[in-house]
């Protein structure tokens, strides 16, 4: 009988869900990815909404919270396919969230702590 060795992230996270980023197509833990859902649909197309708490209803697509992955997903038109919607999609809210997340991560830890006298 042949035993196959599992990748490190699968072994380390037994029981944790693994998803594929629609931008770079790499598999990662769901905790490391941003879930995106369709918020509204109107005459101008579908508005995409970030779902960092993973609680919004509907079909979700997964994306690294990174500008490069967002650009790849937009260029490949991956949101429409992953979310199974036809027509144009507006990812401006996702772009805003990714930029804000990058700013939050850039704050040094010392500035993020409360100073007590």
UniProtKB/TrEMBL annotation:
Domain of life of the organism encoding this protein: Bacteria
CDD domains linked: YlxR
Domain (YlxR) ranges: 19-87
Pfam families named among the record's database cross-references: YlxR
Residues in coiled coil: none
Protein name listed in UniProt: YlxR family protein
Species: Rhodococcus tibetensis
